[in-house]
Amino acid sequence: MNASTDRIERQILLQAPRSKVWHALVDAESFGDWFGVNLKGQRFVAGETACGHITYPGYEHLVCEMQIERIEPERLFAYRWHPYAVDPSADYSQEPTTLVEFVLEDHADGILLHLVESGFDRIPLARRAEAYRMNSGGWDEQMRNIQNYLALH
């Protein structure tokens, strides 16, 4: 685990073909299924925003908004968002975002999925530590979620 306070890094070895892992990442509906966001009828397009209600129990009243940054076919998917934006009365629109990057790498036993979320040092101090802590635990869970999703689909 990186000791940096600015970035969260995770990786997981996925025993699935690259095309299947890629589809789970960049097909908005598939992404929403394992990530826990209702993105039905949406597409991820670089330069555009995707948003949907969170489907994770207890958070259904919240909307996840992602500004799609880059899509490099079967290699990199990146978006920006407001980390741990869970106070429905707060306006996060003026806060800096973090950058979430998924990178696929070939491995002898499948595909190594690298995840980096960076930019926490720019988040307002009042909520920086909690956003980092919650997203750090969240990414642990999301790595298991994509692994389970791929095993079932």
From TrEMBL:
<feature type="domain" description="Activator of Hsp90 ATPase homologue 1/2-like C-terminal">
    <location>
        <begin position="16"/>
        <end position="150"/>
    </location>
</feature>
<dbReference type="InterPro" id="IPR013538">
    <property type="entry name" value="ASHA1/2-like_C"/>
</dbReference>
<dbReference type="Pfam" id="PF08327">
    <property type="entry name" value="AHSA1"/>
</dbReference>
<dbReference type="InterPro" id="IPR023393">
    <property type="entry name" value="START-like_dom_sf"/>
</dbReference>
<protein>
    <submittedName>
        <fullName>SRPBCC family protein</fullName>
    </submittedName>
</protein>
<comment type="similarity">
    <text>Belongs to the AHA1 family.</text>
</comment>
